[in-house]
Amino acid sequence: MKHAVNLSAIAVIGSLLAAAPALALEDTPANRAAEADHYLQASPPKALMSDMAQKMAVTLPEDQRPIFINLMTKNLDMNAVANLMRVALIKNFSADELKALADFYGSPVGQSATAKFGNYMADAMGPLKVELAKAVATTQEQMKAK
């Protein structure tokens, strides 16, 4: 009987530990670097830059778009882009935040959201620029009045 109680207690504790949130990663430069690499694998800079080039190309005449995309892809130093992104990730996010970002962007829902992000930015950027320009103009007028 005592053996069954011990086994039950072990099972309950094991269940509780399994359901508990994962322990936080120690926020060290090495862990940040590892998780930044994990993020860059889940959300490759090359795919991001390719999507950006395609979105930029829509502002050009249709016959120039493939040439623009080809040249942008060829002329962009992806090693430099990946390195600057890695450095910025390590500088600005904790190891836990980078892990969470990598886990999200590596998931099916994260990949789906990423695929839609370029269109979202294209839809929002024009109107956002208009609103920012209005706010800047109003702010400048108000600053002159003071």
* Low-pLDDT stretches: none
What general form does the structure show? Answer: extended
Mean pLDDT: 87
Order of helices and strands: HHHHHHH
| Percent strand | under 5%
Report the total helices.
7
Distance between the termini: 84 Å
The number of distinct β-strands equals 0
Main sheet: strands, sense, barrel: none
Rg, Cα atoms, Å: 24 Å
Could you say which structural class the secondary elements and strand pairing correspond to?
mainly alpha
Query: In percent, how helical is the residue content?
Result: over 70%
3D structure, described in words:
The protein is mainly α and 146 residues long. Helix 2 crosses helix 5 and helix 6 crosses helix 7. The termini are far apart. The relative contact order is 0.11.
Question: How would you summarize this macromolecular structure in one to three sentences?
Answer:
The chain is mainly α and about 150 residues long. About 85% of the residues lie in helices and about 0% in strands. Helix 6 packs across helix 7.
Keywords:
146 residues; mainly alpha; extended; single chain
What are the SSEs and their pairings?
Elements: H1 2-19, H2 29-42, H3 45-57, H4 65-75, H5 78-92, H6 95-106, H7 108-145
Helix pairs in contact: 2-5, 2-6, 3-4, 6-7
